[in-house]
Structure formats: structure tokens, C-alpha cells
Amino acid sequence: MVKTADPALAEVWRGDYLEAVHHGCLAVTNPDGSVALVLGDVDSPFLARSAIKPFQAIAMLRAGLDLTGAELALASASHSGEEIHVEGARDILVGAGLTEDALQVTPGTPLDPQAARAWFAAGHGEKRIIHNCSGKHSAMVRTCVRAGWPLESYLEPGHPLQLAIRETLGEYTGDEIGDPVPDGCGAPALPCTVKGLARAFGRFAAGDTVESRRLADAYRAHPEYVSGTRRDELVLHREVSGLVCKIGAEGTLAVGLSGGTGIVVKASDGAHRATVPVVVAVLDALGLATDTLREFQPQPVLGHGRVVGRVSASQGLLVALAGM
């Protein structure tokens, strides 16, 4: 759960003035799952939202999902609604003999502003296939076809697919997975701990099972399908060799490194702008940050249209990282 006592992780500077502070929690785990660094409450259950998508996809692969490459990356994406994502989701459905009518995802519009403008200019409104989770839902119904499971109830917590996902998340995190609540897309949102999720991402990135290796390879080969062509996660994927990462709604960013290190940051106020500077600071402490990442400002502090400040790691975080 979010705790108001969680420490300051990121600071917002406008010129020489500290304008805002983002509190949160952070866990960095070693390849063996032990703790390298924790800040804040990393042991209480929280909703990582879409950051659990890799483990939903791994569960689907175990159940017979027959996707590879870009389509497999899209199966665990929070995509931007660009043409490659929409067509990819449709291809996943067609490959299982299904249409968009099989999807029970909440209708949506593109996350990417450019894609949204093109979508609305073409006269479209909210549709299921454009929702950022449509790749996951397309993979879910395809998995049901391959496994012989019912389609109409695939979002129910007691459905064999959702039970398999819950078991897989528990296996990877080492957490006792509590009862789900509905996510924004309609699928069950499962709770885990920040520390457990870091451990899980380390295992995922290291490819310690056939399924996690297949998915990690798909992430690395097709990162634009995991997010989009103009997204923060794409920069992280491209700048650090072997890195895999996934955002979750309300300020979660989870990262796995090919050697098995896991990193998860959760912003207490749900602000995504706090997460990237924190992750970059951790990568820098590990000797992995590039000049591009050090200068990266996905949400710059602007004054009259020009950059006048930045969001940066807090001094307290930098001190903690120095002792890691």
C-alpha cells in the first residue's frame, strides 16, 4: 500500500527553486533475489497494474500461447495505439480465428498524441482494439482457444487463465498474491510487493525459464511494440543492452537487467515523471547509464515553452545509492 511516510525519491527544480518533491519506494534486488537496496515500504502489497503484464504473458505461454517476435512483445504491452499496435492486435486475433468481437477490453483511444490526432481525423471514436491493453486481451482470448478454455468468461478471476496468471505471478515474485480487483482494462489487477516485483523482473530479464527467455528476447528485439515509437521505455530499452522494462499506471516502473538485477520504483503520488529519473540514477550507480540517459527528460520543466528546470533524483536517493 502507498505510505505517506515513504522517502523523497525525486525533486522538481524550476531554476534554483525546489518546486515539488515526489515520495515513493524503491527496491533493487540482486540476481539471487536478495536485497541490494530498499527505500520506503517495499513489503506491503500494492497494485503494480500493467507492470505485471510480463507474468501474464509468461502464464499464457505456459498455457499454449503460440506467439513469437513482435506479436509476443505486444501480448504484454501497454501500447500507444499506433498503427503497428492496432494491426498487430488484429493479427493475433485472426491467427486464432477470432474477430474484435471476442475482446472484452474497455473501449479506448490512442495514448500517443500523434496517433490520437490521426485516429480522430479518420472519424474514429473509442474502440476496443485501440485500447492500450488490446494486445494483451487479444493474446488472452487466443490462449483460451489454444487451451480449450471458455472465451466468454476469460476476465473472471476464477477462469483457468486468470488462475494460471495468479500462480505465475506468485512464483516469480515469491509473494502471497492477494485477491484481485478490476483493472482499468477489465482484467483482474493483482497485488504484489515492490520487492517481490523487483525480484520477478530480475528473473524475467535473466530468462531463467524457457517462457521468460522467449518473452525477454521479444522485448529486446521489438521494444517499440511493448510501448510505442515515442515512449520513455523505448529509450531505456535502447540505451542499456539487455534491459527490459515495463510501466504500470499510477507511477510504477519496473526494470530487469540481463544479469538478473531487478529495479522497481513506485511513486506515492502516482506521478510517472518521478520514475524515470530514479531508475536512471540507479542505472548510473550500477555503471550502466549513458550520456543520453543522464540528459533524458521525458517530462521537462518548461517556462514559456523552453526548458528552465528538471526532474531529478533526490539528494537522499543519491546518498543511498552511493552506499549500495
Notes on the structure:
With 324 residues, the protein is of the alpha+beta class. The chain has a single domain (8-322), classed as 3-Layer(aba) Sandwich (Beta-lactamase). It is 39% helix and 19% strand. It contains 13 helices and 12 strands. Strands 1, 2, 3, 8, 9, 10, 11 and 12 form an 8-stranded antiparallel sheet that branches. A two-stranded antiparallel sheet has the order 4-7. The chain has a two-stranded antiparallel sheet with strand order 5-6. The longest helix has 14 residues, at 134-147. The two termini are 25 Å apart. This is Asparaginase.
Distance between the termini: 25 Å
Number of distinct beta strands = 12
What name does CATH use for the topology? Beta-lactamase
Low-confidence stretches: none
Number of domains: 1
CATH class: Alpha Beta
What is the helix/strand order? EEEEHHHHHHEEEHHHHEEEHHEEH
H/I helix tally: 13
- As a whole number of angstroms, the C-alpha radius of gyration is 19 Å
Q: How would you classify the helix and strand content by structural class?
A: alpha+beta
**Percentage beta strand:** 15-25%
Q: What is the name of the CATH architecture?
A: 3-Layer(aba) Sandwich
Helix content: 25-40%
Main sheet attributes: strand count, strand direction, barrel closure: 8 strands, antiparallel
Q: Name the overall outline.
A: globular
Overall pLDDT? 97
